[in-house]
Amino acid sequence: MEHVVIIGNGISGVTAARHIRKLSDKRITIISSETKYFFSRTALMYVYMGHMKFEHTQPYEPWFWKKNRIVLKKGLISKINTSNKEVIFDNNETLAYDKLIIATGSKPNKFGWKGQDLEGVMGMYHKQDLEKLEKFAPDNKTCKRAVIVGGGLIGIELAEMLHSRNIPVTFLVRDKSFWNGVLPAQESEMLNKEILANHIDLRLGVNLKEIKADENGHVKSIIIEETGEEIQCNVVGLTAGVSPNIDFIKESEIEIERGVKVNRFLETNIKNIYAIGDCAQQHNAINQRPPIEAVWYTGRMMGETVAQTICDNKTAYKPGHWFNSAKFMDIEYQTYGWVWAETKENEARFYWEHQSGKKCIHINYDKKTHQFIGINTFGIRMRHHFFDKVLTEKRSVEYVLEHLADANFDPEFYKLHEPEIIAQFNKENNSTIQLKKKSWIRIFSKS
Amino acid sequence: MKIIKQTGLIIFLIGLSIFIGTIFTGSFRLEQAELDSFIKEKQYKSTVINDELSKAVVTSEDLNIFQFSSRVIKAYENSNTHYNGLIAKYDAEKNWAKKGEQYQYKIFGKPHSLSFTLAKKAGNRLASDNTGLMWFLTFGLGIIGALLFIVPDVVLLGNAGIKNDGIFLNAATNRGWIGWFAFIFLVTFYILLYFYPDFIVNWVYLVDPISESISGNPASQWFLYGFLYCTVMSVMAVRMYIKYRHNKYQILRTTSVLFFQIVFAFLIPEILVRFEKPWYDFKNAFPLDYDFFFKWNLDELLASGGFGLFILVWGVILTIIIVPVMVYFFGKRWYCSWVCGCGGLAETLGDPYRQLSSKTLLSWRVERIVIHTVLIFVLVMTGFALYTFFSGANEVIGIKTQTIQDIYGFLIGAIFAGVIGTGFYPIFGNRVWCRFGCPLAAYLGFIQRFKSRFRITTNGGQCISCGNCSTYCEQGIDVRAYAQKGENIVRSSCVGCGVCSAVCPRGVLKLENGPEKGRINPTEILLGNDVNLMDLINEK
Fold first, then answer.
1. For position B533, what pLDDT does the model report?
2. How far is the C-alpha of B90 from the C-alpha of A38, rounded, in Å?
3. How many cross-chain Cβ pairs, A to B, lie less than 8 Å apart?
4. Which of A227, A276, B18, B223 has fewest C-beta within 10 Å?
5. Which residues are A337's β-sheet partners?
6. CB B371 within 8 A of CB B437
7. Residue A363: which H helix or E strand, with range?
8. What is the rounded CA–CA span in Å between residue A279 and residue B113?
9. Partner residue facing A50 (CB), from B169, B361, B461
């Protein structure tokens, strides 16, 4: 029986395993050094915040793996021997494979800051980071202040976590505004306000110079590059992005660049070895996507795809329209299609913000053809299926606005803002768009 | 703010301590005249009971309620023992006529209920004579303290939004020692209420004036329970309003369930009594209202003229037409989460415990077996009840209808719905009864599962499997298992509380009453990936 070995038990690896099991009878082994059972990494923050216990982040009960004949092995791979078709553990144990899937995800970036390996300095990525945080920042007596270095999603989540235990946080962001490499100025500004409203000391446009230690090798303070200011703190969170976790592959025959290089079938240069998820790097970017996508959903989609290929149904990774979501403190964010931080030549934008300053939508469309390109929504939930369809059907911005009631996914009885949104659009564009009543027929019709 | 909160907790605990302490206060004794009128009222044929009770409780001694209760029960036992002795004697003598005569002298009824009725008359010094003051020191301090504890959350919880911070780090909400204490307290309360009402007669005194002002009658332990129920729900509803103030669905639902509890379950039945009509809760549908077709209820309704007949017809229409039609359009949530009293308590008092319900496959299996067994039990029992009502026989295939009714009343009505159903909140989550025991939930569930427009829609491929939805599902549904597959949640047990949708950080879940078509949508590959597995399968 063919033996499929999967390195990494994150969403990519586990999805691959589940789909291979659905499609075949192959022997499957998943190797991880982090935890025995698959858990949702994105939910780690809720464990620290006390919303959930760690067990709750595990989507499958322990019996699931046995029942589905997926062998879980705890261990750290130090090498891959491609000629013998085996992986070598750090204790020199070996395991032979017929097909190998590399799904090792990523690791937090460190940029060679002085003091970056001190006690009390950590990323917020692994289960072990959570354990460290619980040790160094259990409450605001042990941790008088924490400094977070690096904007982005993990940074703001870490800030929210610490805030939930009333630990004062200083948040150093290199950009002039939070996450404005990704978000347009308006949304970014809204989030700046939200961060400040939660009493987080947000410092924009600053870099970390160094982390200073006390006599025990524990972090004592940090110095800001631009101002030379020293901030006393007990914990430093490094959240300046992630990069593929592939150091152990460097000595093998497998071609790597920043990540493991793969083609559209998620195959590496070595036959029978595949790479998926955060650690995979496309030779050529797909559409407007980056070549490495460190997103939950794309990892899952690659897992689904590689399973097809491995089970003799060679399938290219063909992600559909871009989408993503996040939550910043109390503000939910969803995006469908593309809304770049900077408006491109051919693009026109429409921005509406609710008077509360906590809800907005930003629509991107083609200046000439009025074709809908994408939407950012903050504080209003929208239906994925709706936008997937309008993007596929290449609908106009007018069509999207007319049917905004179909798109709304907020809970029942929530205040609807569609009339206000459309009124503003009409005013700004001298148009006469009329909102159509929500229609189940349209919502459920297949594109 | 924290100081106010802590002060509130202290005041609440003082109120609770006095409330508990009240049980042990006061003295109970009867005057001979009171006893005489009681025996006359009860029309006891026993000649022994008067002497026995007189010896026991017409006394100058200061009896506490436990001594009083044990003396009364002893007196009843003595009387019954006396006649049992005679029965045995005449039996030995084969004097059948005499033996038969003795049975009328035996006194039936639950000993603690008889003792409760007497204790209620037997006077008391503390609780009965200073009702207003004592009410303030118990209920009053409890309410004030609880509100002082709850209201500062407006500020302490920060901006409106889901704030479940620290729930699993708190001994009260994580099966810690506070949770276990709450469990012991609640279970004890229900055991006293159902099986030892005489022990809590002092509590009943506290609400006598309120009962008299509504129905014109002194309070029973059930009035006390109803009043306490409404009070607890109201106070905890304030907590719901604060916690979910950003969520209009939760606000409206809490208001609705509170309204139906206070007006329909509490005030209307009591007011009906004032107008000498049968006590009836118009929203309580069979089979949750399991004694609706019992002989005593049918007799009472039929004896109450046109109004009784109206209730009879309304009860039947509610059960066989309104309930299924409403479930078709809105799912069972219209009842379980918007109307039902049991649901109302679960959603208010029980909300802090919702995350404790088990989501394992094993508990789901147990749930399906147990809840459907209860439904079958209630249907068989009702069949028996109706058969005996119309036929006049008191047994079917050799089984006494009364026996079945007693077993159900004890096992399901008291132990399951009360002691376990509410007492186990702090350990097994807040809808133990709704999930494992309620026959109406089982009935509504069938309709919801197979013929309804209701479902929880999942939003394409947006789920990140974080598990908040599953954790906070009070019905123990593994919501995430569906959401991560992009499958709509169409489950019998979903009561549509809407909390999964509220706690989802990615906006994935929405309660919808859409068209039936496409409600069940098993998906192989999620939205976002342009592989269409169905096409692939069709191509093969």
1. 47
2. 77
3. 168
4. A227
5. A374
6. yes
7. strand A360-366
8. 72
9. B169
